[in-house]
Amino acid sequence: MASFANMPLKERLNTEKARLREMTFKEKMQHIWEYYKIHLIVIVVILIVIGSFVNIWFINPRPKTVLFIAWSAGFALDEQTTGLADVLTGELVENKRKETVEVSLFLTDSSDPQMEMANTMRMTAMIAAGMLDVFILTDELVAEFSQNGAIQPLDAILAELKSADPALYAEIEDSIAYGMYTTEEGSSGERMMGIDISNSPIISELAFYSEQGLWFCVTANSGNLDNIVPALIVLLGSA
After folding, report:
1. Percent of the chain with pLDDT over 90
2. What is the pLDDT of residues 111-137, one digit of tens each?
3. Rounded Cα distance, 25 and 155, in Å
4. pTM assigned to the model
5. Contact 228, 133 (CB under 8 A)
6. Cα gap 143→139, rounded to integer Å
7. Which domains does the chain have, with CATH numbers?
8. Other beta carbons within 10 Å of 14
9. Regarding beta strands 188-196 and 64-71, do their DSSP bridges make them parallel or antiparallel, or are they unpaired?
10. Fewer CB within 10 Å, N side or C side of the chain?
11. How far apart are CA 236 and CA 198, in angstroms?
12. Do 135 and 150 form a contact (C-beta atoms < 8 A)?
């Protein structure tokens, strides 16, 4: 007689049914767990994964990030970046369940070369993919990011700001940082690269601080004018 493992599937099923009919409920549970626990665990894991995807995609989808701000101007607490994100989300977004503004801390630790390299690679990849919209930088980093092409000149942003709020534009003309910028064609020169937001009431209220200033800069591949300019107006509107 062939062993149970070598029986055809139909015969194995019939044999298994016959065994289970002769067992008590407790014996059935013990038998099923002993012989099929791996299968059951796999099925449970698959159901959990499927349930998670269904929840994320259909039931409770994650809000779309309409503006991503990378804070690189010194140390900041989660409460501060979350507070800033909440303020901007409240001003820029109509449906907070579907859309949000994200403010995330991006710092490199020069004392740890491997960590610094990992953070730089992450930042570079996100800029290349157009995932980052705005950097908040120190004086020193505005110059560095201008030279390495991580941020773009503010001509389009300031033109849009001037059109949207001429009075506010006039107030900030003396609060613009210039840096050397090289175009794709190879020509270089000083361009408008950052706007000082250190006097913003929102920034002050959330107790952000940097000895080297706080500069609002636009990442190299962001074309998100529809959200960048309103965010800048919110930050400077009461300055």
Report:
1. 41
2. 667 777 777 788 888 888 888 999 999
3. 76
4. 0.72
5. yes
6. 7
7. 4-59 (no CATH), 64-236 (3.40.190.10)
8. 12
9. unpaired
10. N
11. 9
12. yes
